[in-house]
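Q: Sequence in, structure out?
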Amino acid sequence: MALEQYLRERLARKDLLLMTHVVCGYPSFEDNWAELEVMAEFDVDVVELQFPFSEPSADGPLFVKANQEAINHGVRPADCFEFMRKVSAHFPFKVLMMGYYNTAFKMGSQAFVDRLAAAGGCGYILPDLPVEEAGELHGLSKSRELAPIVLMTPTNTEDRLQALADAAEGFIYAVARKGVTGNKTEMGEDLDAFIARCRAHTDLPIGVGFGVSQKADLDFLRGKAEIAIIGTAALKAWEEGGEESLRGFFSGLLG
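A: Exactly. Output:
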C-alpha cells in the first residue's frame, strides 16, 4: 500500500498521527527492537529507521553521537536493511529509511530502491539530497511505490516550497525551525504561519518535526498538521531508563 493512502486511512480514525525515530544499531539492534515494541504498544503510525552515517548534517548532538557509536560498532547498510526486513514483517506500523545520500549514491540508485522495497520500506528521507539532483532516484522510486519524503523549511521562498511540493510523495516533512534536530521548538504563531505556507503548496499530509517533544506540542499541532514527528525526545527517554522510561514518555505524550 502506498504511504499516502496508508496515512489517510489512519487519519480517518486519528486526528494526529505519530512518527518516531530509531538509529539502527544504537545502542544495539536488541535495544532498537525493544524500543519498537514500546512504540507499537502506543500505536505509532510510522517509524524512521536511521542508517548510521559519519556526517549526519541535519542531526543534533545526541543523534550525531548515536550515529558515530553505531558506526564504531560496525553497523553497515546491509545490517540496517536486514533489520528493516524483520521490523516491517513483524510490526503494524510503516517503516521509512532515514539517512544521507551517500548511502544511496555508493549503492547506486537502482540497487538502493530495490533493496529498500525488498526490506519492506515505504519510502526514504535523505535531507542532504537537493530535489534538483534527485530525478533519477525519484523516478526509480515510483515503480517501487517508494515515497521520497521532502523537507520544507521556514527559510524556503514560496517558489522553493512549490518546487519541493512538486517533487514530494507520501507526506511533507515540515521542519519547525532553523538548525538541527534536538532543540526545543517554540509552538506559536510563527510555526502556525509556516505550516499554513506549506499547506498552500500541497495537498499531501504534513508532518512537523524538529523539537516536538511533549503533549502540549501535540495539542498545538492538532488541526494544523497531520503528523507529529518525535525523534530526540524518545531517544533521551530511552537513555534515561530503557523500556520503562520510554513507556513513561509515551504515556505522558499521548495521555
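Residues 238 and 244 are 8 Å apart (CA to CA).
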